[in-house]
Design brief:
Radius of gyration: 22 Å
Order of helices and strands: HHHEEHHHHHHHHH
Organism: Herbiconiux daphne
Strand order of the largest sheet: 1-2
Distance between the termini: 55 Å
CATH class of the largest domain: Mainly Alpha
Pfam families: FCD, GntR
Shape: elongated
InterPro entries: GntR_C, TF_FadR/GntR_C, Tscrpt_reg_HTH_GntR, WH-like_DNA-bd_sf, WH_DNA-bd_sf
CATH topology of the largest domain: Four Helix Bundle (Hemerythrin (Met), subunit A)
Number of helices: 12
Number of domains: 2
Protein name: FadR family transcriptional regulator
Keywords: DNA-binding, Transcription, Transcription regulation
């Protein structure tokens, strides 16, 4: 094991054992390196690495602190990696969405109240057949985000948001090239809301699978050059 990796693991252990918690300040570099039996240079590299993935916050002239360790903060690195993927890899991202979002819909079915359902219906009603592709994409993002948020799992929310952001271009392409994309999207969204309203987790889950699979199927045809009008 590289010395820097060892330093990272030792700092991680300090956090896991509760010796260091969110917002705590790390001991000075010299003290920490002596305490852990590591060189100051390896400790410095470890701190830099943990700063990149938002575990530590280095404040010049003040010290190094453990961040809030909130999911959205810690998963920023994943968002960066996802954004680097090319269009061929986006099919794999859709496959992950097809696994995660139906689960989120099932969880949301037990948590959405009357106001939450009303807000979802209002989002669907706000889109018209004459709406632009950009407006449809904005609605789609807002609709899915509201359901995921209602699931009540912050890690799940952040994971899905990082995947959804990268798939915007696919949604735009679909809107530009596929007939009846707006009507189809709104119809599928309405059906999902109906299932959520009656609290049918299995139905909401199945409808979300079908909804995402439709875009995934279109994208696969597009990347293979076999796209045909439905």
């Amino acid at each position: 094991m590289a010395v820097t990796d060892e330093a990272i693991l030792k700092i991680k252990d300090m956090i896991l054992t509760g010796e260091l918690g969110p917002g705590d300040r790390l001991p000075p570099e010299k003290e920490l390196s002596e305490r852990l039996g590591l060189s100051r240079s390896s400790m410095r590299e470890a701190v830099k690495a943990l700063e990149v993935i938002r575990v530590l916050d280095v404040r010049r002239g003040d010290g190094t602190y453990v961040t809030s360790l909130e999911p959205r903060l810690l998963l920023e690195a994943m968002t960066f990696v996802v954004d680097l993927h090319d269009d061929d890899s986006i099919l794999e991202l859709f496959a992950v969405r097809r696994i995660l979002e139906p689960a989120a819909a099932a969880l949301a079915s037990a948590r959405l109240d009357h106001d939450g359902i009303g807000a979802l219906r209002a989002q669907v009603a706000a889109v018209e057949g004459s709406s632009s592709v950009e407006e449809l994409v904005a609605h789609d993002l807002e609709f899915h985000a509201a359901i995921v948020e209602a699931a009540g799992n912050s890690y799940l929310t952040t994971l899905i948001e990082s995947l959804s952001g990268h798939t915007i271009r696919a949604r735009v392409w679909r809107g530009l090239t596929q007939e009846n994309a707006t009507e189809r999207t709104l119809s599928e969204h309405s059906a999902i809301v109906d299932a959520l309203e009656i609290g049918d987790a299995k139905l909401a889950e199945a409808l979300m699978v079908a909804h995402i699979s439709g875009v995934e199927r279109w994208l696969r045809q597009w990347t293979q050059g076999t796209l045909e009008s439905d």
